[in-house]
Description:
The chain is of the alpha/beta class. The chain has helices at about 25-40, 85-95, 120-130, 140-145, 175-180, 205-215, 225-240, 245-260, 270-300, 305, 340-355, 360-420, 425-430, and strands at about 20-25, 50-55, 60-70, 70-75, 80, 105-110, 135-140, 155-170, 180, 190-195, 200.
Amino acid sequence: MVGDKTNPLLSTHKSSDSGLRILLHPLVLLTISDYITRYALRHREGPIVGALLGLQNGRNISLEHAFEAETTNGDRETAILHDSWFKDRLQQYKDVHKDPALELVGWFTTSPISGPQMQHVPIHQQIMHTYNESAILLAFHPAAVLGEVSVGGKLPLTIYETVYETEKNFGQSGEHADRSMQIDDHDESLDFKFRELPYSVETGEAEMISVDFVARGGGNATAVNSTTKEREKNQASQTPIAEGNGKEREKGAVKETNGVDGMSLLSTEDEELIASLTTRANAVKMLHSRIELLKAYLSQLPPSYLTTPSTSDLPNATSPSNPETQPQPSADHTEISHPILRSISALIARLPLLMPADVTSFEQESLAEKSDVSLVGLLGTLSNNVKDVKELGKKFAVVEHARQGSGRKGQGMAVGDEFYGGGGLGQSMGVTSMGDGSAL
């Protein structure tokens, strides 16, 4: 990566020639993400700073653990590490991780996409002078997450190493001059610079458990606004208690306390299904973004790379043996990278291997499997319909039996009235009353 001209802290070299290879573990990413999230939700002030623990084996550096760090103000009112607190916390982590023995390999913070800023230099120099002279810097870019600047599934972070470049020292002053070191009273000086390092993500078996847990928990995650939550709590506190017996009041209180209906909770099968579908959807989105990235790269190549002219038409065709005839990219075209072009060509050459030899048989087999799946779905629907009809028949039989029972009862009463002449039982038996109230 060519250093940004607007950022004097970035190196002007294209890429790192130190041979360092960074292996980034997902546990570090989860720790940084959790720290930044808690920092933002608690509205804390000050820089986001943390330490990176790992192993350095030759030119390979693995970043395995991370923890947040406490800062304080230095001599120039700049943020630096709290030395005593940081030493105690670092020693605690070293006591825990003894096999293998981890050491401080760098630190992390947040920065713009343009790169580290001047406020990051004091902390980096403190770590280099006290703990590790070859410490690396992991810069997380929040703007890449919020603004969706990241393309092609690239992580919103950059890892830098420290280099000292020789530059002409003409009238330097201020903080930039403090980072320079005179050599034999000449105008040349060594300037403190950051240079980007390539990295790759490495995952262990233990880390896959935590990653899988986070992926499953994301299926039920719901963003709740704090103001909305407080408003609902106030409404719940102002709601009068429902009248009724003790069980009803207790049930209503439990429901208000939980704030979530029991029917809205997902079962374990639903959570697994959502996690599986989310993983597949993310994989498809990443594949689509990578394809779009390749298409954008190929479309920005010079015109000579987008056509396939014959050698007879172009006698002085470009070739690797003739570098003078190589087309030079203009400002409107992407820089030519032959390794990337060869990788794309190899990928395209492997695509026919993914297709079956007999396409007709493959299509027939796919159609047969699709038909079987549809048939099983229709059988399931038919079984559900039969079950519903059976339940409906049972309910109809109950209603019909109740109707017949009420009809028989009414018919019996009518027959009794007709038998006794409609005058009642006492009248039909000839019962009369005397004047003195006695009955015969």
